[in-house]
Design a protein that fits this description.
single chain; 13 helices; 10 strands; 40% helix
Length: 382
């Protein structure tokens, strides 16, 4: 792979022009990034950890999706909208006709009358399976426990969107399914999550086959050309993730690996995506910087990953505190210093208040890369 090749895939010629280098993805506003991380400081933005409460949302009928969940007031990005224990758990293989019926019936007998009524009020997209298995298959969410799913009365009311404004994940530390706002949600807007992450056609086929519906979210209602362009961007993101996490390629051509991650960041920014996929890009950036002994960039990427994780899954979720530790000391990574090609200390971080200058340093863009070529052997960008 030639340097720069990996960041030229897809029909996205206008993306780089429309996404300014200095945009802070989390807020959509320019930020003084050079001063976000000071020696010994702790970056803690967003990530509200309050319990979800019905005051944040209401369940109402929708024109084309049955019932949905709507914000009753402004919800700030990073707010925990719902934190809910499962009504019951089941192994996925049991959610089959004639196998699940008795098992679900037994679990329902153990619930209160109100919980039973709430269960039967849920939508059944698969009536041919019978009431019990059909409702569970239509509404169960996967757990971070191999082969298990859970039924959550509140979370079950949140509809699918290919461009969601919230993110759900099961927190095995607390035994709760959490739903966090991944962007600011105005009062009256429907709260949505994504049921399946993949490219457009694959995602829509999966929803049709596994959930029994055609997605009618705002993204799927876009004119065909706009929808296909957006799907092409996400297809490129998913394909580049494989390059971004390839440790062998990171050792072979670290500069191109960094520009691959920058390309992912640019595309996510362009599509206004501020969920776990953004955190993943920052994690890839951290691993790359740590691998090459670059404590300055590693600390920034760890700070960014930590903040995005807090905004998506909460402070007390599995692994989040590990990123806080890496933020405070990037050298904790077992990868750190595999090479010293980019050797730096945390205090070497760019301190420019000019956001574009900071990003030129962070991503080693053309001007920065060319300046380093002579001493470090970095290949010049096309």
């Amino acid at each position: 792979m030639e340097t720069g090749d990996a960041v030229k895939t897809g029909d996205t010629k206008n993306v780089d022009d429309k996404v300014e280098t200095g945009v802070n993805v989390g807020s959509g506003e320019p930020a003084d990034i050079g001063h976000q991380v000071e020696a010994g400081a702790t970056m803690e933005a967003g990530g509200t950890e309050a319990e979800g409460t019905p005051a944040l949302y209401t369940v109402e009928s929708t024109p084309d999706k049955g019932k949905g969940t709507f914000a009753t007031r402004w919800i700030t990005r990073g707010t925990c909208i719902i934190s809910e224990a499962p009504l019951f758990k089941m192994r996925n293989k049991l959610i089959e006709r004639n196998i699940a019926q008795n098992a679900i019936a037994e679990k329902l007998r153990q619930l209160s009358k109100d919980q039973q009524r709430a269960f039967f009020d849920l939508h059944n997209q698969f009536p041919s399976m019978g009431a019990f298995p059909g409702i569970v298959r239509s509404n169960a969410l996967p757990l971070n426990e191999t082969g298990k799913g859970g039924l959550f009365l509140q979370c079950a009311r949140i509809n699918q969107s290919c461009i969601p404004n919230a993110y759900h994940e099961y927190n095995s530390n607390t035994g709760q399914m959490t739903v966090y706002a991944t962007r600011d949600i105005p009062q009256g807007e429907e709260i949505t999550i994504n049921y399946f992450w993949d490219t457009g056609p694959v995602r829509r086929k999966f929803l049709r086959e596994h959930f029994g519906f055609e997605c009618v979210c705002a993204h799927c209602k876009l004119p065909a050309a706009e929808r296909e362009a957006s799907d092409a961007h996400l297809n490129e993101v998913y394909s580049l993730y494989d390059v971004a996490r390839d440790k062998d390629y990171a050792l072979f051509d670290p500069l191109d690996s960094l520009h691959v991650i920058h390309r992912i960041w640019t595309l996510l920014n362009y599509e206004n995506i501020t969920d776990i996929r953004l955190a993943r890009a920052y994690m890839n950036g951290f691993d790359l910087a740590a691998l090459n002994g670059d404590a300055a960039r590693a600390r920034f990427f760890a700070c960014s990953a930590y903040n995005e994780l807090r905004n998506c899954i909460g402070e007390n979720s599995v692994g989040v505190q590990d990123w806080k530790a890496r933020m405070n000391d990037p050298k904790l990574s077992p990868l750190f210093g595999t090479t010293h090609r980019w050797a730096s200390e945390p205090g070497d971080m760019c301190t420019s208040k000019d956001v574009k200058e900071f990003h030129a340093w962070l991503w080693m863009l053309k001007e920065e890369a060319n300046a380093m070529d002579a001493g470090n052997g970095f290949p010049e960008l096309d």
